[in-house]
Structures are given as structure tokens and as C-alpha cells.
Design goal:
The complex is a heterotetramer, with 2 copies of chain A and 2 copies of chain C. Chain A is α/β, with parallel strands linked by helices. Helices cover 45% and strands 15% of the residues of chain A. Chain A has 20 helices and 14 strands. In chain A, strand 13, helix 17 and strand 14 form a beta-alpha-beta unit. The termini of chain A are far apart. By secondary structure, chain C is α/β, with parallel strands linked by helices. Chain C folds into 3 domains: 180 residues, Rossmann fold (3-Layer(aba) Sandwich); 125 residues, 3-Layer(aba) Sandwich (Rossmann fold); 117 residues, 3-Layer(aba) Sandwich (Rossmann fold), CATH 3.40.50.1980. Helix content of chain C is 45%, strand content 14%. Chain C contains 17 helices and 15 strands. In chain C, the strands form 3 sheets. Chain C has a 6-stranded parallel sheet with strand order 1-13-12-11-14-15, sandwiched between helices. In chain C, strand 7, helix 8 and strand 8 form a beta-alpha-beta unit. In chain C, helix 7 runs parallel beside helix 10 and helix 12 runs parallel beside helix 17. The model of chain C has no long low-confidence stretch (mean pLDDT 97). The chains are: A alpha/beta, C alpha/beta. Chains in contact: A-C, A-D, B-C, B-D, C-D. At the A-C interface, helix 1, helix 2, strand 3, helix 4 and helix 5 of A face strand 2, helix 1, helix 2, strand 4 and helix 3 of C.
Chain lengths: 472, 472, 462, 462
Amino acid sequence: MPMVLLECDKAIPEREQHIYLKVEGEDSRDYLPVSNASTIPGTLSERGCAFCGAKLVIGGVLKDTIQMIHGPIGCAYDTWHTKRYPTDNGHFNMKYVWSTDMKESHIVFGGEKRLEKSINEAFDEMPDIKRMFVYTTCPTALIGDDIKAVAKKVMQERPDVDIFTCECPGFAGVSQSKGHHVLNIGWINEKVGTLEPEITSDYTMNFIGDFNIQGDTQLLQTYWDRLGIQVIAHFTGNGTYDDLRCMHRAQLNVVNCARSSGYIANELKKQYGIPRLDIDSWGFSYMAEGIRKICAFFGIEERGEKLIEEEYAKWKGKLDWYKERLQGKKMAIWTGGPRLWHWTKSVEDDLGIQVVAMSSKFGHQEDFEKVIARGQNGTYYIDDGNELEFFEIIDLVKPDVIFTGPRVGELVKKLHIPYVNGHGYHNGPYMGFEGFVNLARDTYNAVHNPLLKLAATDIRDDQAVRFLEAAE
Amino acid sequence: MPMVLLECDKAIPEREQHIYLKVEGEDSRDYLPVSNASTIPGTLSERGCAFCGAKLVIGGVLKDTIQMIHGPIGCAYDTWHTKRYPTDNGHFNMKYVWSTDMKESHIVFGGEKRLEKSINEAFDEMPDIKRMFVYTTCPTALIGDDIKAVAKKVMQERPDVDIFTCECPGFAGVSQSKGHHVLNIGWINEKVGTLEPEITSDYTMNFIGDFNIQGDTQLLQTYWDRLGIQVIAHFTGNGTYDDLRCMHRAQLNVVNCARSSGYIANELKKQYGIPRLDIDSWGFSYMAEGIRKICAFFGIEERGEKLIEEEYAKWKGKLDWYKERLQGKKMAIWTGGPRLWHWTKSVEDDLGIQVVAMSSKFGHQEDFEKVIARGQNGTYYIDDGNELEFFEIIDLVKPDVIFTGPRVGELVKKLHIPYVNGHGYHNGPYMGFEGFVNLARDTYNAVHNPLLKLAATDIRDDQAVRFLEAAE
Amino acid sequence: MGCEITTRERAGVINPMYDCQPAGAQYAGIGMKDCIPLVHGGQGCTMFVRLLFAQHFKENFDVASTSLHEDSAVFGGHKRIQDGVLTLVRRYPDLRIIQVITTCSTEVIGDDIEGNIRYAEEQIAKEFPGRKVYVVPVHTPSFKNSQVGGYSECVLSTWKTIAKEKVAPTGKLNIFPGWVNPGDVQLLKHYAKEMGVDASIFLDTQDFDSPMLPDKSIHTHGRTTVEDIRASTGALGSLSLARYEAASTVDFLKKEFDVPGHTVSSPYGIANTDAMLRKISEITGKPIPLSLVEERGVAIDALQDLAHMFFANKRVAIFGHPDLVIGLAEFCIEVELEPALLLLGDDNTRYKKDPRIVALKERVNWDMEVVCNADLWELERRIKDDPKKYDLILGHSKGRYVAIDANIPMARVGFPTFDRAGLYRHPTMGYRGAMLLAEQIANAMFTHMEYVRDREWILNTW
Amino acid sequence: MGCEITTRERAGVINPMYDCQPAGAQYAGIGMKDCIPLVHGGQGCTMFVRLLFAQHFKENFDVASTSLHEDSAVFGGHKRIQDGVLTLVRRYPDLRIIQVITTCSTEVIGDDIEGNIRYAEEQIAKEFPGRKVYVVPVHTPSFKNSQVGGYSECVLSTWKTIAKEKVAPTGKLNIFPGWVNPGDVQLLKHYAKEMGVDASIFLDTQDFDSPMLPDKSIHTHGRTTVEDIRASTGALGSLSLARYEAASTVDFLKKEFDVPGHTVSSPYGIANTDAMLRKISEITGKPIPLSLVEERGVAIDALQDLAHMFFANKRVAIFGHPDLVIGLAEFCIEVELEPALLLLGDDNTRYKKDPRIVALKERVNWDMEVVCNADLWELERRIKDDPKKYDLILGHSKGRYVAIDANIPMARVGFPTFDRAGLYRHPTMGYRGAMLLAEQIANAMFTHMEYVRDREWILNTW
């Protein structure tokens, strides 16, 4: 009985298909949780919407691009100040959101004029910016505004600007994952190949599916620089709009997050024949393996070994200090999807941590295949976990730390369980060698926080005893 | 009966001789308050000590000089963070105090060795600083430490340093005024003439008795620059130790604060024949008059007129805006001494303010002569006023604003009277044309503070009325 | 000199000040006990609003979604409403209130909210005989109004659904503070206690600042119960402290149940707090006690230390909820700060006629602008044009980068204030709130003086 | 790794951490009602200390001087003591306590304080029959100890003078918090109230934060009365919260009047506050109520948001009063801050053997220094040598320029804190104090991140 019906799910028995407990001896391939399926209404799931999958996760990372959201104000307001992807040009991407601020009359009479005006205003107000993404949202999709036509019109009138349109309203698909797909496919079909890059190295690649969370991209870039590899486009961490138009010229596509960006890598292979190489950037062993694979592709193995050696010399001792102190700690991972499989084995190998429960918001079948393959026995693998399930799972596996978002972090805090920000990190970057030491440090600090012990104390507890003693 | 025995002074009738009420028709010269006399113990006077008169008021202003206080820790601690005299080199003078931290054993066995060690340490720790003042304090004076001998020894051993010693313990004299005197005379006798200045203008002067409170000196310096007059030494606002050694080379001594620094001007006249010219730097009419006098001395009247004209054009309108709104307001001045006579007529002439009571901490006879000559009828002139007297005077004259220190400001606040910082200013500088507009602005803001009206309201007051109305 | 009232001229918004209506409705929903709002729309409409609350309060709040997908866009979302409500009722046995909050999409689709609620209620009655769950229809299309109106709408709808009959007189006073912080709720309770007034704070969000307890119990939700709401019809009066967030429910209680309705200016600053206490005294017949006179005196004493020395002639830009912005402007004038720009962030046309705005307009003798339907770009652009235009910014954290990039001191106030620790815990209302805000403003200015080395030495002694 | 305990090696002091003994004695004196301390020394010894109090509290406090001059240096200051006392008694009809506080000069001169006091008392008896004024000899030569010892000495001497006999049991608990802020006194009163304990806070300095009142009355002085002091001999126990500031008077009450004496670590941080409450519970037999469990939980909840995310691995330099510094170091460890430098600012040799210091020494697994008899140059020099040595400074405002010039965030705590508004008003002790201090630390760090543009974007969501 590796599929689990939790107590709290008695009223929604279909949830049994989404929760898997890996058991020794059984063939886990028979028991893949159902994933990428519609959420049961009213379950307090953790999922976001397709729009945010496109805007917030991928498009909004770009450092030189206006993100015009065609809809009521909330879609803009809500996808602002929620992410931690800095840029090397002052974080333009995190400072602004743009909205057409749709009102009832535009719903009734159509919002294309308003969109056109908003686009022009935005370019006028920010004259240094020449690139834009335009997104539909639920109501503008429902009323059928033709945002492509508007974008085209503006581009004709303003030859110095370029606009990409993304039509994935919040109700599309079952989760943010749909937005990743729409944006990937749209971009490859409409924008890749429309600009030629300057080639400065014999070795060129795109780095795909890394969003520069707390500087991940910038840290890894120091490796590529040392290896002499030119990254033509970062999809999309610290990236620019025009770099992404040049993706067709790379010799290799290196993919970190296959879930958000595998589509474009596949298309680049299909349309341009560029090979796809998947690596893991989190964890010492994985990172070293990734560097080796890339260097092998380019035939620069010795450079890779030198880099790895230098990095190990610098960071391995620190990692081991933490490993010694984290050995045997139990961790839960409740994040989007791929990080489950990126992390479960790397924290086990590099830090001696046991991952006891994982919940994915928007992982697909291939993600669960990977994570179950890499994960341990006795661990719960959950698709689209909800709040009551989280409580029950915590009771079952008693994790010492949970990698999840800040809100859920606040929730589990009440249960005296510390969290580490599994989306935006506590104090990153977490990728690469240095980054994984950061992850280890944050985990150590979370687990060894003296407040947890204090929180568990009821200061009234020993009163009876004390009164007795006092009376003696 | 122009000398006044207040109700609160019935137990100390000698205070009658210190409080004068100027009355129409009487010859005020017959009724000068007794001043510069010993304070009655236990009266809660506002006076400080001679040590602070030297260290805090004059010596500590210098921007390049260590102020070594030979005594227990309090004398250093207490004369630190109490003044607002910035410098153009980063406020070294306000950031540090130095103490020999005398302990009982040094009291018993003598503190000269400790002083020597402390001096050397201070120079060692701050190698960029080569100048020092050394002060005795009450206990080191009482045990008879020879600080001059120690200073001499150090100067022999460290030829690049120069040290000035000032022997005025806190118990010397009746107030801080004694310290001004000791420092003035000591400096002229020991240091003036030991260095020659570089002369860069045909017109040279010392500016004496201005301590750069909130940038006074720096503001006035812009005038001297525009007039082409070289200021050889500022005694001591924003000044340097070595500049003060060159005072003998000025053609003219311009004195603002005669109380703290008249002595040195007189000695410079006696010993070097440099003429002394007293001016007032606060107030439009006074400042203009002062500039005219200085320019007349140098024969550069037209430059002076141009300056005055430019400044009037720039600031007079602003002054008048405030004058219109301050007309008839009643002000009390409770400060050190000279500001009483500097301000009483200037606020009357320039702002239409009536000064209704003045108390001087350490003014001498000549100060009271001046202030009573310049002051109005119906005004109280008080020497060394104390707290109960302040309360009573406030009841008598009901001032709208009091120019005094922050502590007394906090006291009168409870009586719903705003204060303006008469020592360190609220938001200065206050000297010069721009400065007097600042003074006007701060006075206006003090007097028109809506909180004063709110403070006077008892929110319970109209309850009876309201309950009645409600019942109807 | 003088005050100009304008409206944003651009069509688009760059950096909005308010979230949309459903967000405000959700904020109201979490203020009640045994209640989980159910947002009928895309999942993002819930997920990000829950995150927003967590950013501000550092707490998790429960809000559910109907998880609208394409099929609902085509065939309607009826089933998802019904399933959502029933799933909640089934899995949360203590649940007593569910607000069904509509969004832009479901309003465009035109789902029959009331009909589906009726159906769900029938199901509940069948499945859980004897259990009463109030399912509240809350119509908050995102393309109307803003979080401000959404909050008001959800409170009103909940009252309409639960407060069905006039109960016997309770002797209590209903106080509707609007969208405020737990610190404000605690302050109001404290005032009521000092005055001996039995007050119900609607909504009682004190536990939005909730503890970690040894028994691991979770109390992060409003304290306002079904019983409290029902009892409000028997109160001796209702007091609205927020024209745009609270007045509608006060009016409802007046019209439907003859509960006398009162409105005062939002109690920001001394005079507004005076007026509130006097009004409470008038309604209840309870005198204002000495303790509050003293508390007031401590606040005035603290303000007086700062006003003419540090605050006078400082030009302030203020943005946030309309009642807060207006109240803060009034407070500013009390402490000699000059409100120079007020930004009100939605298309409510009543602001221009708000008597408080009119009074401000008549009162100021400096340049002042009130911009309606404003976004934060209005602020940023003015500063770009004239970097010295403002000396201080008062507003919520969404405007933080304007202050950071322009190097202008900013005191965080309102909602959300995610970039400072603990602010939600302290009141802004009342005497204490005025004092704490002034302290925060002063300390922001002082810190600024230090970082830019601008007369920081003046703080050595003042 | 490990903790080193050293002593300042220089003879001289650059930027002292503490004022001299008479300053501390004056601070104690103003904590009593109908009391004006009379400082026997130069006028500066009073004037600047009064200014210091005003800098910190933004209030005026009454302290008198004997205005020592040269003649006294030669002939002795007898007359000035007598005149000073009598002038005070004559002009202040409500006056009941006068501490005659010696200074360096009058101790060197060797004036017979006790003799002169006897003489003055005789004069008072003659002139004001039936009026009792306690004239307290307080020997506080400036060349011994520091303000810390002076505070302790003045409290002890006052008790010795006034608490002359054992009164009937009062059922009260004496709490001696040491030199703390009005906010701390209010906190302790609140705790006592919640526990149903009738406590006397010695000294009760709540009104050091005093109001502007409509009647213009002035209440800026301690609330501790002659009666309170007398009644302390009948208390069911005394609790010292500060080893170096309060323990001596607790010992006196024990030795002279058999009042059971108790000492706990100063209640900074959670665990120390736990210990204090448990001790109070133990002494009084009153249980700790749920309300304090909840208050504690709110504080822990707030701290938990900050500790491992922002505080962990941050190296902290701490200076100030010894009990405060040690308590703050213990608090730091609770929230994952690493105390790296503790500065204790006088020549008290007992610090090195303080069990709390010994425990810290055993506990830390990072580099830590404790410098005794330190000045602020010890801090500044270390930073000049290694600008990255500390990430945070905790201390009073006398050290502000170290932080400003080295660009290190600093939270102001202790005495004096004149460069921030309102700090004295809030507690540092107790759960709430720990929480507020953590908020202040976090907000200082956050502001710093913004001004130096160091990952300030992380605050968008945490």
C-alpha cells in the first residue's frame, strides 16, 4: 500500500492517488503519484496560476524589460515584491510592475485601446527601456482582447522597441507550470533567431532554467568565465531580452530547471539541432558532475578539473564542518517541483541529511519519476499537498527543518519547526560550491536555533514541583 | 524698587541684589544686578564650572587638538556630546574626549606619571594629531600635580608635538567664566607669537569669540572671503591650534563674544598693539553695522556695501515674512551672558519681538550694563537665575518662547512654553543674515506649534456639557 | 501656495498602491473566527494574497480557492463553488463562515454565486444536520474599486448574511476601525477598558500577531465570532473609524436594526483621537478617565520634543489607504510636518468631496497636491523631476524603492510594511500611535542624517 | 575560537563608557519622590549630569550643588553643605530626602559629611519643628569605581538612612531592577500585576517619561517614597535584577531586617526572564499565568522570524553597564547573534569572576573577547584594525560615532541613548524588551542594507 490516504483526506479520497510512500522492495515505477492534475477546490493547495508561471517565474527576471500586465490591478500588484532575483543593473526587474489597470468599462467595451495607451506611456516614461513583455490575464483573455495586434501596432509606430506577447491567463492549466510552457514555446517561435549574438569564445552555450535566485546565475557565471565558456543567453537569470533572441547560436544548451525551461531546450534541439545537457547545480557532487559534463562536451576537461579542485579546496572543509553537525537531521521539501529531485540526494550525499517528505506544487510525471528514483525509502512523495496534509505528514515524519516558502514557513513555525526558504533561499546563492555551503549554513542555523527549545518550554510546567519544594 | 525680591527667594533675601526690573524713568545705572558672585548652595542654579569654561567652550572647539583632561573620568565624560560646533575636517573635536582616568592610588601618590603616559598614548594612538591641550581638574589641582612640567617633558621627547596646559579646576571662580579667563591669558602668554602665519591678503584680522555653533564661523567666513579679508585665527570656531599661535600678526581683532574672549583681545592690544573692534554678529542691523565697521577699518567700504546689499536682497524678504508673524511675541533669554545683549535689541528691531526676561549664568558687570542699556522697560534682568525664580518670572511675564538650553527647555515645556536652543541653536547657524532668518524661522515654528494648543486642552473638560446635551 | 486636487492622467499603472477588490475581501475574511474565505477564481488570486498577508504579518492565514480552470471559463464554475464549499465543510469540522469571494474572471463569466451557495447550503444541511455554516456571497470583481472597497464589501456581506435579527440590547459599543493593524485593535481595546466601555472591535484582529506556544496550538485568525456579529444588532451604537472601509456596515446596522451610527475622523493624531474618545464618551455616557489624559500628555510631550526642532518645514509625501492618508496628513500638521503630496490609489470619486480633504485644502498655506487614482509612479516621477521636493515619505513598503533610490527618509506605515520588523504589532491610531509614528519618523530622519553625514552631530544633544 | 578576558592596558581613557560615581548617585537620587540630591563639589559635577539625564530622557531633573569654590578647597566646605541643605529645606516645603553626594574634590579635601549633616539636621529641627527631612551621606569619590557603583552606593545609603526599623509584614515583594529605563519599570509592574504580586519597584522611575498636562503640573521624578522605603523592611522578599547595581541593598535588607534576598540574572532575553518569573513565583507562591505564557510566545514568535534568517553568524560588539552587557550577550546567543566583544567600562575586578561571564566563556565556540576597564577606543581600534570584525554594535549613544564612521549598523540600548527618539520609553527587559530590541536590531540592519545597497531586495519578501 504505497499510495496513502491520509486521515484528513477521508472526505476527498481521490487524494490517495497523489501521495506515495516509498517502501523497500516494491517497484516504485508502479506507484507514481498523479500529478499535473486539477486541484480539488477548497483544499488550501499551495498552487499559483499560469500567469504567474510566465510573468513571475520567467519573464519578470529579465533585467531590461517592461512587463506589461493587461488586466485588473491585482495581477500586477500580486506579482511584485515576491521574488529574489537581483540583476547587475540595479534590480530594475524587482522595482517595477506595469498594469493596464482594467476597469469595468474596458471589460465591457474591450481593453485594446487602453493596452496600447499603457504600452506607449510606459515607453515614454522610461525612455531607456526598449523591450517589453505583454501578458494577458483572466478577464482580458475572456473578453478576447487581441494583444498581439496591439503589440504589432506599437512596434510599427516605434521601430526602436520590441515586444513579446504571452497569452496565458491565470485559469489556464492546473498550475503555474502551464505558464512556463506557454512562455517557452512562444519565445522560441517568435523571438529566437531574430538577432545575432557577438561570439567571443570557441565555446558557447545557453544556460537554461536558472533564475539568478539571490545571485545563483552570477555565481555560476564566475565558473563559466574561468572555463572560458561564453554564455550567449541566460534563460532567464540576470538575462536580457536581446540575449534570449540569440539562443539559436549556442553550441550547447545546459538545462538546470527542466520543469520551467525544458520546453525551450527541446525546441532549440528540434529547430536548431543544439544538443541539450541537463545538469544539477545544487550540491558539490552534482555541480562537479555538471562541470565535467560540460567540459567534456567542449573537450576542455583539464580546465574543469582545475576549477573543481580549486573550489573543493576552498569550500569542502566548510561543507564538512556543517555535514558533521547536520548528519541524520530530517528534512522536508515542499517547493515547486524540480528542487525535490535536485536536492534530495545532494543533501543526503553532501550533508548527511535525510529527506523524509517532499511535496511538489506543479511537478509533472517526469519530475516524480526522477525524485522517487533519487529519494529514500520511508519518504513521502506528495503532489500538490495541502495544509491539512502537511500537518498530518509532519506528525508522521517529524522533520527537523522544512524547505518551503515564507508563508508556509510561518505556519510550521507554530509547530516549532524551522523553515529554510526553498524558493527564494534564506541567504543565498545556493547553487555551486559556495552556494551549497550557504545552504548548509542556513540549514544548520535553522536547526540549531536555541529559540526552538525555548518555545517548547511551558514556564508554568514545573510550578507544582517548585511550590512543593518551596513549602518544604 | 527696581531690585526685586521674588516670593521664592524669601529664604535667601540676598538674591534681591541679582534681579532687576527696568522701570521707566529711573536711572538704571544705579541698579545694576550683582553678578559674577558666588552662587548660594542648594539653589539649583544653572552654572557650570571653570574647567568647562575652558575645555568645553573654548579649547574643545579646535579641530586638530587632543584635549587631555587630567582627572577622574567624569570631567571627560561630562564635557563630551554636549556641544554643537562642527568642523570642516569631520568633527574630530566632537568625537573624542581624553582622560587620565585618575584613580585613588594616583590621588594618593600623585598623577604626573599617569598623565605623561596618557599623553604619550594619545599621540601614539592618533598619530596624525600633533597638538594637545592639557587641563587640570579639581582633584589634580588639589594634590598639586605639575602638568606644565609633564607637558614640557613630553615636548622635549617628542619634538613634533606642541602642548598647551590650562590650570583651571572646576572649583576655581564662581562659574565657567573663570575658565575663559584662565585659558585666554594662558594662551596669549605661552603660545601667541610662537609661529608665523602665511599672509595672503592686505587685510588681516582675527575673529574672536565665535565658536562655530552650527556653522556660524563657516557662514561668516563666506563674508570675509567675499570682502577679501584674511582671517588669521578664529578664536576658536573651526580653528586650529597653530592658527591661534599666529594671532599676533593680524591687523585687527574683531570680537564677537567679549565675555569668553575679550581678555585675549585686550592682551593682543596691550602686547602687540592690535586694535580691538567689537561687533554683533546676530541680527540684520547689527551684522550690517559690524561689516561696515570692519570695512571702514580697512578702507574697503564699497565692498562692504555690496555684500550687505546682496545679502539683504537675498534674505530680507524672508526675515520680514517672519517678522510679520512674530510681531509682539514675548521672549525670554536664559543663556550664558553676552547673548542677552546681542539678542535683545536685534530681535526687537529685526523681528518685532519683545524680550521680557533675561537671565545670565555668568555675565559680569559690563554685560549687565550693556544688556540693560539695550533692553526694554518692564523687562527682568537676572543674574544666575535658579529654577524657582524661573517659575515665578514665567508667571510674571508669560513669555511665548524661551531661548535657553535643552534641559531647561524640557522643564518649561511642561508649562506649555516652547524653547529655542539658546546655546546650540535649534537649526542654525544663527549668525549673519541667513542665520538670523534661521533664528526667526525656529522662533516662528516654536511659537506656532499646534501641539501647544492641544496640550492646554483637558479632554474631560466639556464632558459635563456633553452629557447634558446627550441627555436632552 | 495652496492645494490642488488632480487625478492620474495616464491610462496604465506603474507600481500600484492598492491590490484588487478580492484581496481586500480576503483580508476581511481572515478577521473572523472559524472562517475560511473561498476565492472563486484562479489560484493565483488566493496564493499571492496569502503571501501578501504573510509578508506583512509574518503569519500564515487560511484562504481557499475554487481553482478555476479553462473548463469553468467555458461551462461556468458552479461545480467548483459547490465542491469548494463542501470540501471545506467536510474537512474543517469547526468551520462556521465561508465567504465566497468573486474575482474578475468569475464575474466576467457570470457565475450564479447566490444560487450555488443555496445549493451548497442544502447539501450541508443534508450531510451535517444541525450544523450551521454561513456561506456568504461576496461580489468583488477585480476591475472595480480596489482592496479598500473589497474589504468593506466583504464585511458588509458577512454582516448581511449573519446579522439577521435584532437581539436584545447588549449595552455594547460596536467599533469598526477599518483595515488596521493588531496594534491598533489592542489600542482600541485598551481605551475601551480604561473608559469602562464594553466594546466589540469589528474585526478583532488582535491575534494577527500570534504566539508560538508550548502546546503548538495555532491562533492566527480573527477573534470576531458568529455570536459577536449577531450581537452587534443589539449594541447601543456603532462607531465607524474609517469612512471608506467601515461606514457601510455601520449604515447597514443603522438601517436594518436601528443601531445608532456614528462616524468620526480616523483617529490618527491627537485631535482626531480626542474626537473619538469624546464620541465614545457621548455614546456610552462614560467619562474619559485621568489615565487617558495622562497617556495623551505623554504623547504630546514626546511629540513636542520633535515637532519644531526636527519636523517643522519638512515636506511630506503620503500614500496608502485613503482614511490613513487623510488621517496622517492631519497628524502631520499637528507636528509641523507639511503634507505636500497625498496619493489616493483607486478610482473612488468620493475622495475629492471628502470633508477632511476639503478642510485640508482650506487650511494649508504651502504647496500641496492630492492625486486621486494615483500609482507610485506619480511619486517617483515628481521626485525625478525635483529631487528635493520631499523631505520625508510616509507610506507602505510597496513604495520603498522610491525612498531608497531617491535617498529620502521614509517611515513605513499602513499595509503592507514588509521591509521592517514588527510594525504591525504597534498602533498607529490613538495617542500612542501618534507618538510611536513620530518616533519612527524621527528615527528614520536621524538615521538618514547619519548615513548621509548631514548634521548628524546635532543629535549629540537635543 | 574561545573567549579571552583582558583589561585595558593603556593608562588613559579615550572616550569613556561610564560617567563617574557622583553621576550614578545623582541618577539614584532623582528616582525618589520629594527628594533633591545635593552634590557637594564643583558646579559642573551637577550641571553636566543634569544635562546628561535630559539628553537621555528629554526631561529636566532637579539636582542641587553646593557650588564649591576655592575658599572651600582651603578652609573646607562645611558651610556650603549646611547652607545647601538648609536652602533646599527652606525653599522646597515638600522636600523629604536630600542626598549629600560627595565628589572627588570634597573627598580629597576630606569634609566631614556626617558631622555637617548632623548639624544641618539640628538646624532643621529647630527651624521646622515636626518636619522630618532625611539627609543622606553618600560617599562617591569620582576616582573610585564609576556611575555603576555610585548608583548602588546612593541607593544603599538612602536605605540605611531611612529604613531604620523592621515594619510589620506587608506581603509585598521588593524588586530592585538596577539602573533601567521607565519602560522596564512599567514592564516589571505589568508582570507583577499579571501574577497578582504586590511589588514595589525600587526605584520606581516610571515617571521619568512624564506628560505635558493641561494643568501644567510637573511629575518628572521617581515615585519611590519615604514610606515605600520604610515598608521595604517588612517585605516577604527582595529580588535583585542587577548584581552590580542592586544587590548591595538587597543584602542590607537581608542582614539588617531578615528580608529574604534573592538574585537572578538580569532579565534580558527569554531564558533570563523565565528565571525571573519563576523566582517571583517561588518567592510569592503565585503561579505564572497564561497571559504571560502568551506574551512570551508572541516574543519568541517574533524572534524566530529574525534569528536564523538575519541574525545568525553576525558578530556583535556590546558595551554599556555590566549587567546589561552580560544580559545582552546571553540574549544574543538565544537569537543566534554571536557576541564577539563585551566591553565593561570600569575597574571593578569582580567582573572576571562573574558566573555569567564564566558560563559565557565556557559556552562560546567562536572568537570572543571580554575587555574589562574598557573605553570606547578599545572598540574603535579593533574596527580600525579590522573593519569587518563586527557586523553589529549594541550599546549606548556615546559610541555612536564608532558605528557611523565605520558604517556598522548599531542598535542603541542602555544609558544614554540620546541620538534616537523615545527609546527610554520602551522596555529592554522581559519578553517584550527582547522582542523590541530584536526589532530594533533588525530594523537597524535593514536600514543599513538599504543605505549601502547590500541585498536590500531580500526584504521584499521574507
